[in-house]
Amino acid sequence: MVFHRMLTVLFFSCLALTIAYLYKQNYPPMSAPIADPGMASRHAIVVGSGLAGLSAASQLISRNIPVRLLERGAKPGGNSIKASSGINGAPTTYQPVAEPLDAFYNDTTRSAGHAMSSFTAQREKLIETLTKNSAAGVEWLVQEKGVDLSRVAQLGGHSYARTHRGAGQAPPGFAIVSALLKQLKESPLFDLRTSCTVTKVLQDGAHVTGVAYAREDGKQEELHGPVIFASGGFGGDAEGLLAKYRPDLAGYPSTNDPRPGTQPLLTAIGAQLIDMDQVQVHPTGFVDPANAATPLKFLGAEVLRGEGGILLLNGKRFVDELDTREKVSNAITTTTPSSESPKQWTVQVVLDEGTYQAAKSHIDFYLFKGLMKKSTIAELGPQALESITQYAKVVAGEATDEFHRTTFANWTLKNPTPESVVYVGVVTPVVHFTMGGVLINVKSEVLGEDEKPIKGLWGAGEVTGGVHGGNRLGGSSLLECVVFGRIAGDQCADYLAGGK
């Protein structure tokens, strides 16, 4: 056992060092400048180096448009590089069960909930664009970028398995972002500038003409050209936008690094906001036993529940674990928290051996980080055995689930005993994603208060709003980045080709 643990620690230590080395080698703080100075006046500016920004940049470069990408962080990747569950796509050849063409659209509108009652036509068009382009987005990553997305799981709120990830050790976000960054770095048309914070959007009349930004050394510079904003959400802006629009979430831990939202840069030039009060609280952020009070949490991937895992509160199941994130989180937060600073609950995510094998790369990483542990049912508390025994009967078809869960994926434990091996981690609801942002249309154009496009400006990813409504489905964040990032890139290329 000790020798096995030593090998496990050695393996993940080597894996982490290898990833860090490759990341440093392939993605230095700044790349070389654009090789052809004659093209500099016809370049596009992308703000943000998460998947939305990288997808836009890839599309622009495929159209032979030079790209200058500004990233305020020290390294590229944004939150996308941390994404752990996967990317949605339907219909694809990797799905284990074929689904009706409108199933993904229907799941997304159902998840959006009450938000569909306003801006209904715009939302329907955005959701249609998202879902109808999902299969093409997955194929683009697989065929053109070389990303493995062969594993598919069914996450909460989905009626079919459609969330794709790879079969290897690397999380899907890291695998996707790394592939795009590597390919972009090989192009002389790509210029990445990190530690550069945009401070103003420049205009000439009604047209956006560039941005002003501050370098790490404090020097102010300007870039001129059409602009794609892919700068992320405001989930880490606890004292600013989050406090303004959702003061009730004060004290909640978050999966987002502390940083201000960028939406005010766009409202300063007349961009319209939508759904700013729609903030996703994810039900499973890990409570690290080594630092339980930290407000920054590591996300427990939804795939843990998608592959068959369950949630226990005081030893009892209390919800359909595959309901939407909103409903699962609400089922937790209506109970008394175990801590007020930060505001968190003590919920156990529990997996059996079958679920462990299905999500092995994820769980092994969490075990290595100390966020989960291999345990027995007896160690989970006095009521856990009864709860897990009842769940096993439901999985076996011997009972009906009182919470109406209907899919159990890879749970295989049939006759639980106190000595049965399980894998467990403590989780709590966390601020994870902001559905609100600047309003865009199906061309990714940022809309003004008059709902007309602001010329020379596009948006993609979490900086935008209107796509997800009141709740985002797991796997649709990376998808949104790819779909609307590519659209923004193409539209910006057309804009430049038209002599703008």
Automatic annotation (TrEMBL):
InterPro entries: FAD-dep_OxRdtase_2_FAD-bd (IPR003953), FAD-oxidoreductase_2 (IPR050315), FAD/NAD-bd_sf (IPR036188), Flavocytochrome_c (IPR010960), Succ_DH/fumarate_Rdtase_cat_sf (IPR027477). The keyword Flavoprotein applies. The keyword Signal applies. Pfam families: FAD_binding_2 (PF00890). Its EC number is 1.3.1.6. Keywords: FAD, Flavoprotein, Oxidoreductase, Signal. It catalyses: succinate + NAD(+) = fumarate + NADH + H(+). Residues 44-478 form the FAD-dependent oxidoreductase 2 FAD-binding domain. One of its GO terms (molecular function) is fumarate reductase (NADH) activity. Binds 1 FAD per monomer. Residues 1-20 form the signal peptide. Its cofactor is FAD. PANTHER family: FUMARATE REDUCTASE. Irreversibly catalyzes the reduction of fumarate to succinate. Belongs to the FAD-dependent oxidoreductase 2 family. FRD/SDH subfamily. This is Fumarate reductase.
